[in-house]
Amino acid sequence: MDLAFVQSGLLERFLDSDVISAEEVAALLKRRGVLDGTPVFLDEETQIPVPPLCEYGRYLSTALLDESTLKDYGRAVGRLDDHLAGLGGDVLSAVESDLVSYRDQRCRWQEKPIGASAWGKESFVQDDLYGFLVERGLLSHRPARVAARGRNALAPRIRSSMDIRHLSFEQYRYFRDVGLGGQLPGAEVNPAFRGWSPLRDRAGANIALGSGTRWREWAPVLLPEVGLWPGMSPGGAEFTVQACAKYGKARTVYVPEDAVASADLFCLLERPDIVRRAARGLERKARDLFVVGDIDMAGGRVRGILDGVVREFQMAAMPAKLRRITVHEGEFGLEALTLFVCRGGLMPGADAWKGYRHRAWTRMNELADETTPLLPAKRWRWHDLRHTYALRLLTYLENIMDGQEPDLRARRRRHRSYLTGHIRHNPLLIVSRRLGHASPETTYQYLQYTDDLINEFEAAFSSWVGDDEATYAEIASHALSGTNRGRS
């Protein structure tokens, strides 16, 4: 069986048919609510859609999952079907032993077995698929037994905790300046450095750490959102993230002043040259881009032409895919409205940012000497900076609550005495809201690490992001002031 995904943007370029036009197909997909990324399962020989599985793909599309999730679900079903085909069966004819065989193949026998967390996701898709087939009457019962309380019997029995990997101050500076910035361990310029746009990569690390946001939340940030727009006053930036947030859950993000200054340096020294070189190419692609002509800073809205039609969007409601094609008329012609740009002039994608950190990791290991901080056993991830933010902020707030002065102890007792005070001033709940966790239970897992960090610095994030002295206690004070204003 072959697996394909709906990509409406490719219709005009590749659809060549006298029977139906690309515009008609695109309109049909839109009218039927078929999202980009919807998996389409095709018979390997005839290339005819496989009805049961294509119905499941359509069902996933109506659940309004994002494009990457739709593709992940589709690949999981495709891997299962390939395994069952090797056993002489298919999804509809599978029995429990076939599914157990697939689990063992994925978790034990393949060249790189997956862990419990990855299998948990595949097991969920598998369970969801068979639940759908039973509900639609395509199967009379699930092939695998149902455990107690309706639990999937093939799911991992032990729930894995978060893989919390945080950085020390020395590790972060080494990652940022040597790995991403191309310096030598002693802060000298590295004449052998052949990286591209180090100021952009350093700014990305600073914003990731300073805001505590996920990669998909900070990577597509727009220039107006971080205050790097004509007429906006310098300093820290505050904006709402929603469409790019996990589960689409809206929350306020604060980017501290030093992180914004790092991004401003990239905009002054590197970004103009990238924009200038890419302007002609963007002009040729103008019909495929969202060309913004009006930006309402007060209302947080942008207005422009998309697909030949005047459209208006709330910035917070713009998904990453739309942000990537959003441009405006700049000094050299069309230029991206996103802060981060790559050689093509548009926002770097997931693979690009992955490549930046992989090359940084290689440089860090090649240049490591006796002065280098202890590097982690596993290659670092962008998400490690979010974990570091959480632990630093949590530790700092706990230190405030657990201060030595009697009046602080008295104030702490008062806060614990009232539910409203507890909700507003509890460090764990403050960090949970800042991270956008759906439940404080997720944030609880950071507590086991805080004792190891308490004595490293007197103030959270002091001098981490800035090149000179920075006061990253601003993050904590801003979080506290935000709760006092009744804002999460």
Query: Number of helix segments?
Result: 20
Instruction: Provide the structure class.
Output: alpha+beta
Shape descriptor: globular
Based on DSSP secondary structure assignment, what is the total number of beta strands?
9
What string, H for helix and E for strand, traces the elements in order? EHHEHHHHHHHEEHHEEEHEEHHHHHHHH
Estimate the helix proportion, in percent: 40-55%
- Poorly predicted spans: 451-458, 469-476
- Radius of gyration over C-alpha positions, nearest whole angstrom: 25 Å
Gap between N and C termini: 47 Å
- Major sheet: 5 strands, mixed
Strand neighbour order, sheet with most strands: 7-6-5-8-9
User: What fraction of residues sit in β-strands?
Assistant: 5-15%
Mean pLDDT: 85
